[in-house]
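Exercise 7. Given the encoded structure of a 423-residue chain, write a plausible sequence.
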């Protein structure tokens, strides 16, 4: 639950739809940086698939907000019903149940608003969302979405709960498909006939199944509630639990004391039990390294310059030749940046129609048109090659962008230049 709340609050993982940014472990990726976003999503996907293959439905049992809040809602409802039964013992059972239900809904409503707030903050800046919530905004699109999600969340935790996992959620089925003969499962193992048939494991199961029927039940989320329930009951009789985590179909015990002599190697104990798992670990490592390199190499200020070839060139009144360019600049950092452009590789060429220093606020993108002018005597007829140097301050990073400068094919001696500009 803490992870679910903290991920968007600290921009560890958040997709900001409004600003079109993807936050990944503190890095702010712009939607234009598709390759890095793609790498990040692929890394997450392989991580999720690897977890499902090695540790089964670990996500469902321990990380899924739907499961966490469903279990919390069920526990809360039972606890309120018990308290009401004690305190309102004089009332009729029907009235008592109705009051308990109403009290539960009263608690569930603010809880649903909180869960919705956290969920929506994965897609909208949390501060913006907070202001909308405080002003009870149900007029704008964002406010209507927030109110609708709150209602769905309320109904989900009031009525649907874990039925969502078996009837709607595709991810549960997907994880089951990724499992193989070595995947961690919850097993009932009772070779000595110690089960006392108390059914506590069945009553504790949030999915309402009996793990004694087998470890491969589709509904089983591997939450281990039945493990705790059995530990409790048979522990009182001085025995060890009959339900435990175990690896794959063979049911080799995991996380329990195994005699030192028969202890498997450490890599087998943490789940790396065949070549497929080693291969996926290598793949994950390669992706993680690639992703770290890509994030560390990304430019805080993105500069693109394109020639505007609607007009190949124009002539200045002084006989100089002008080419038009378009500048696109985005400041992807959190600090103000200044951009300076200069020409190299084309003698006496200069930039006109553009401020020398272009100031970019954090997160700002701008477009500008500018011209490069060169004396006719300094350029060759036709295509000339040059570079535009873009220097970013305070990063003090500069990059050379290869561009072409077009001059007329015929001679353009200054004395023959017509008045004004011509095509
Ligand atoms: S059978 Fe056990 S592990 Fe599976 S869902 Fe029920 S309580 Fe959780
Ligand atoms: S809780 Fe343990 S002892 Fe009781 S029925 Fe389940 S497996 Fe048997």
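Solution.
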């Amino acid at each position: 639950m803490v992870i679910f709340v903290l991920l968007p609050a600290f921009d560890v993982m958040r997709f900001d739809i409004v600003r079109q940014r993807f936050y990944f472990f503190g890095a702010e990726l712009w939607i234009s940086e598709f390759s890095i976003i793609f790498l990040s999503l692929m890394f997450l996907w392989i991580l999720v698939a690897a977890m499902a293959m090695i540790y089964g439905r670990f996500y469902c049992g321990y990380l899924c907000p739907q499961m966490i809040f469903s279990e919390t809602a069920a526990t809360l409802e039972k606890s309120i019903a018990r308290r009401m039964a004690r305190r309102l013992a004089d009332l009729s059972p029907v009235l008592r149940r109705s009051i308990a239900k109403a009290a539960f809904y009263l608690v569930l409503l603010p809880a649903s608003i909180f869960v919705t707030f956290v969920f929506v903050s994965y897609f909208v800046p949390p501060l913006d969302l907070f202001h909308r919530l405080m002003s009870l905004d149900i007029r704008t699109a964002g406010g209507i979405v927030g109110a609708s999600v709150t209602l769905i969340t309320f109904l989900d935790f009031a009525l649907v709960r874990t039925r969502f996992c078996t009837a709607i959620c595709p991810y549960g089925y997907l994880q089951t498909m990724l499992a193989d003969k070595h995947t961690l499962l919850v097993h009932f193992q009772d070779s000595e006939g110690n089960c006392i048939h108390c059914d506590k494991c069945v009553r504790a199961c949030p999915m309402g199944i009996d793990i004694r029927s087998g470890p491969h039940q589709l509904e089983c989320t591997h939450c281990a509630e039945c493990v705790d329930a059995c530990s409790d009951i048979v522990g009182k009789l001085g025995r060890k639990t009959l339900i435990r985590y175990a690896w794959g179909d063979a049911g080799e015990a995991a996380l329990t004391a195994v005699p030192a002599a028969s202890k498997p190697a450490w890599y087998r104990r943490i789940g790396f039990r065949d070549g497929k798992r080693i291969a996926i670990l290598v793949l994950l490592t390669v992706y993680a390294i690639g992703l770290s390199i890509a994030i560390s190499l990304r430019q805080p200020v993105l500069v693109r310059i394109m020639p505007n070839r609607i007009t190949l060139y124009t002539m200045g009144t002084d006989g100089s030749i002008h080419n038009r360019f378009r500048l696109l600049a985005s400041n992807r950092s959190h600090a103000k940046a200044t951009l300076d452009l200069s020409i190299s590789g084309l003698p006496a060429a200069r930039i006109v129609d553009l401020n020398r220093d272009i100031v970019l606020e954090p997160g700002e993108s701008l477009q500008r048109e500018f011209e490069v002018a060169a004396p006719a005597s300094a350029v060759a007829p036709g295509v000339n090659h040059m570079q535009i140097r873009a220097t970013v301050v305070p990063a003090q990073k500069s990059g050379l962008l290869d561009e072409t400068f077009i001059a007329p094919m015929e001679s353009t001696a200054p004395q023959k230049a017509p008045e004004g500009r011509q095509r």
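Remark. Residues 84 and 100 are 6 Å apart (CA to CA). Students should compare their own answers with the one above.
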